């Protein structure tokens, strides 16, 4: 909308107050784009700039307390603009807005399906790979698992999966990967113990962006070495999804990307393998749908998303064996109790974070000076926007009590809103 305004004689200026998150928007439901909506809707905003002057021949069709021009249109030229994000799940009526635009304004039909995507993507993979061999960076998470099964369908035994045990996984993750994927890929599953390599390179590093870059480069080094052993490997398969790409790119007018993803920003320019990314233009919810279509077990598809750099970005400050041990044990308790409460599949992500500070506490008659654990739970669908989960107080009590009693080295639990 801001670009449309600039191109048609309007003006965009920095907003006095930023508008991030849910906002109440007053809607003109006579607009073709906004028909069928309530007079007031809750929509997701994410901006620090706004229109300060309306472009010529446009009229306002929605506004919020911070955005006097939350939606604009020029019916004659069939140009519509919105300041909010109809495409994210938190915009309750967003789907209706997109349907109005596609079906009523553009007069289009819906002919894209996940089945057609699989057919097209398998053909594209075969064209790209030819008779070559592919090395898969398997993490055991949803994205890399779906990508691996997709490639397996396309090229069969020419796919080799390497799981890198970098020491930054959840408790028991390596054993789980051996059990689940050993059945699927057999001898083509390779487990590489690289914990010492990763932790040595991360020694003394505190900046999260630097951690991501180091992990990205180290991953590629490990895969490159493995590819040489296997011989004839020309391609590297990655479970990159669309939010990874979006978040890793600096946009004009913004000095920094949101964050580098180890499978986007961490790749060296002279990497010897070419990258295959069958999920690159899918959002997280679409990846799960694809996995279901491919027949992947719910045990894998229903897992909460886990970051590529693992616990490195949930261990704030320098990464040490002591902090990682505390974090893994605390995180495992969080997962256990969220599952027991029947909330695991209902929450997008719930996890523990360890802070680089110690806090004073009293346990029994003794004074303690130990680590702070942060509990975080957020809901999302597409991995583009998230809102905090209102966990029950009794569940917070059980989790914090277990962490303080069972995890040696932690004496305080806080909840992140």
Q: How is the main sheet built?
A: 5 strands, antiparallel
Strand content: 25-35%
Distance between the termini: 30 Å
Number of helices: 12
Question: What is the fourth-level CATH superfamily of the largest domain?
Answer: HUPs
Helix content: 25-40%
Number of domains: 3
Order of helices and strands: HEEEEEHHEHEHEHHEHEHHHEEEHE
- Counting helices, strands and paired strands, the structural category is alpha/beta
Give me the oligomer status: single chain
Average predicted local confidence, pLDDT: 89
Catalogue the unreliable spans.
Answer: none
Characterization of this structure:
The strands form three sheets. This protein has a five-stranded antiparallel beta sheet. The longest helix has 23 residues, at 208-230. The mean pLDDT is 89. The protein has three domains: 2-105, Class I glutamine amidotransferase (GATase) domain (Rossmann fold); 114-301, Rossmann fold (3-Layer(aba) Sandwich), CATH 3.40.50; 314-415, GMP Synthetase, Chain A, domain 3 (2-Layer Sandwich). The chain has helices spanning 2-7, 94-105, 114-129, 142-155, 173-185, 195-201, 208-230, 242-248, 284-293, 298-301, 321-340, 393-406, and strands spanning 11-27, 40-53, 59-64, 71-74, 79-82, 133-137, 159-165, 189-193, 233-237, 274-276, 349-363, 366-379, 387-388, 410-415. The chain is built from twelve helices and 14 strands. It is an alpha/beta fold.
């Amino acid at each position: 909308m801001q670009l449309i305004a600039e191109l048609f004689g309007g003006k965009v200026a920095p907003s006095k107050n930023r508008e991030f998150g849910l906002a109440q928007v007053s809607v003109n439901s006579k607009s073709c784009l906004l028909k069928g909506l309530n007079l007031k809707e809750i929509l997701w905003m994410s901006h620090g700039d706004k229109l300060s002057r309306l472009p010529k021949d446009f009229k306002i069709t929605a506004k919020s307390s911070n955005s006097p021009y939350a939606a604009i249109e020029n019916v004659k030229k069939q140009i519509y603009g919105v300041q909010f994000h109809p495409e994210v799940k938190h915009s309750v009526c967003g789907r209706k807005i997109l349907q109005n635009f596609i079906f009523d304004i553009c007069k289009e039909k819906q002919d894209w399906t996940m089945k057609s995507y699989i057919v097209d993507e398998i053909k594209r993979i075969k064209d790209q790979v030819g008779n070559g061999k592919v090395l898969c960076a398997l993490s055991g998470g949803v994205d890399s698992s779906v990508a691996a099964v997709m490639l397996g369908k396309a090229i069969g035994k020419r796919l080799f999966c390497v799981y890198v045990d970098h020491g930054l996984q959840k408790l028991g993750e390596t054993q789980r990967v051996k059990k689940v994927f050993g059945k699927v890929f057999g001898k083509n599953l390779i487990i590489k113990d690289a914990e010492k390599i990763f932790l040595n390179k991360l020694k003394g590093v505190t900046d999260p962006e630097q951690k991501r870059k180091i992990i990205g480069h180290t991953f590629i080094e490990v895969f490159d070495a493995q590819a040489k052993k296997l011989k004839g490997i020309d391609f590297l398969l990655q479970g990159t999804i669309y939010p990874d790409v979006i978040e890793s790119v600096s946009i004009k007018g913004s000095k920094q990307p949101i964050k580098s993803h180890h499978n986007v920003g961490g790749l060296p320019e002279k990497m010897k393998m070419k990258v295959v990314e069958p999920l690159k233009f899918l959002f997280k919810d679409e990846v799960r749908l694809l996995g279901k279509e491919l027949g992947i077990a719910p045990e894998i598809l229903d897992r909460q998303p886990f970051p590529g750099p693992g616990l490195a970005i949930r261990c704030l400050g320098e990464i040490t064996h002591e902090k990682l041990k505390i974090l893994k044990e605390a995180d495992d308790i969080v997962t256990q109790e969220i599952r027991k409460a029947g909330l695991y599949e209902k929450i997008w992500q719930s996890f523990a974070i360890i802070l680089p500070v110690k806090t004073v506490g009293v346990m029994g008659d003794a004074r303690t000076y130990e680590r702070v654990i942060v509990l975080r739970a957020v809901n999302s669908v597409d991995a583009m926007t998230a809102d905090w989960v209102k966990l029950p107080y009794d569940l917070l009590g059980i989790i914090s009590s277990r962490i303080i009693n069972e995890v040696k080295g932690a004496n305080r639990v806080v909840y992140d809103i």
